[in-house]
């Protein structure tokens, strides 16, 4: 059986990228793995939903011979941090002046609103012009409600977003920023402060 | 492009099953869809993680030509309910006297402990002898810590578990049981009671 090796090879190759060139998803996955290892949070990327049109049974189990990718209607990452539900999406654009909203799948923007209404922490990590910003779901929704533009100007992201500084380990320590934004003072949503 | 129709056909066929024969996963998916529609909770089944060893690009996008299923190390369902993080697993056995722990993938039992430690609501829905029980993660862990058996006797599940009665809509209303167990009185984890 050859394929598990092939997959592994691809993965280990990507770990050798320099951070500058490493894509956002890899940075986040690496950071989440670090958080899990340190027992700081349990946040994972949801597997990409696929549809299977042909599968066969072999001695190694069920193998997909024809599958296609579906569009997710929820966000890519979710989990628990300091007793709270957290869900977020990661997006990256080469565009320098504005972030095209077409980067979101249909339903995702409405879904952000729903997660917030249910009391979850919900945001987007946007990589643009070499910086990664955390933009709160609330600020994304306000923008959409107050504008008819099909993209968010970089100035809005710079002004409303929180810059996440790249560091050594974890590379993209977004939870430190989450702490500052959502757990200011002593509590979030009536919860007592938990030292992390 | 033929496969999307094929998939749809399979799905609609399964909706015609009588509840008695319907498998646990379908019952839960149907119930979760109802909860989302009613805006009572946002709980979804995580897609099964797959590994891809061969993919091709076609006019319809990227198509998987060789893929295999990976074992999940987290639980199957997660989401948010009444502001709280919820994660659970669904298992069904034909065994009448005891529930084999081999039904869990490696790492899943340890993971339940971690979700609880982070303040999440975590449980297993077990279908056995025609009944569906909610067994709290805490009770599952106690059993594992106090026993060396490789299976949980049905009597333990009957005694510690909470029976979920099948009804018309939603079919498997497990959140009503979650309410009774975790939101007794006014609050959970310091949260104020939210009417549902």
Largest interface: A-B, 49 and 49 residues
CATH topology-level name of chain A? Trna Endonuclease, Chain: A, domain 1
Rg over alpha carbons of chain A: 19 Å
In total, how many domains does the architecture of chain A comprise? 1
CATH level 1 class label of chain A = Alpha Beta
Q: Please, what is the average pLDDT of chain A?
A: 83
Instruction: Based on the coordinates given, report the CATH architecture of chain A.
Output: 3-Layer(aba) Sandwich
Q: What is the number of E strands of chain A?
A: 10
Strand count, sense and barrel status of the largest sheet of chain A are: 6 strands, mixed
Helix share bin of chain A? 25-40%
The largest beta-sheet of chain A arranges its strands as 1-4-5-7-8-10
Secondary-structure element order of chain A, as H and E?
HHEEEEEEHEEHEHEH
Low-confidence stretches of chain A: 1-21, 190-196
State the oligomer. Answer: homodimer
A few lines on this structure:
Chain A is of the alpha+beta class.
